[in-house]
Write a structure and sequence with these properties.
The chain is mainly α. The chain folds into 3 domains: about 10-85, no CATH class; about 90-120; about 135-185, no CATH class. The protein is built from 9 helices and no strands. The protein is extended, with a radius of gyration of 30 Å.
Length: about 200
Amino acid sequence: MPRKKPPVEERRPPGRYLPGVLTSRQETFCKLMVEGIYSNAECARRAGFAKDTANQYAVKLLDGKSYPHVLERIQELREERERRFGVTTIGQLERFAKLSRGAEEAGQYSAAINAEKIRSALGGLTIDRRETINTLDQLSRDEITARLAALQQKYPHAFQMEAKIKDITPDDSGSGSELLEYIEKKSPQRSYDDED
């Protein structure tokens, strides 16, 4: 008959876990939770817990039974933040609820939706994730032109235009790009203002 494994606490090496004392991962988890930006599992992942078990650790850390000192630390950090900034989560939730109702009653549905979005993020129901994938603002004009040329070769059908377009962006010589100058030379001159 196989032996049962002892509980986790008994398997830990002595001195490694002290009740009521936070480990560095637990402290990081608490700080991330108080920020309110990430989900519980994401806080655990960012605190250093394994990706596969982060959700399970987040549940254990927040259940109040396995690690009650973690919840106490989260409460301490929240109170410290409230003292420092004079803002409470409940107060903010109430304020956004009032703003949302007022905007909806005034027929300003966009403002009401924005207030509800902020309220749900503040309450931890949603997470705002943004990724910057385009770095075009950091490229020079030549690099952008080279990328567009590569895209034009790869996807020529996306660059086919039905109508002629006049380039009004001046370059160093004060005229448009070479391609548009070439098109204008080949096609007969026609004013688009005359069509109105």
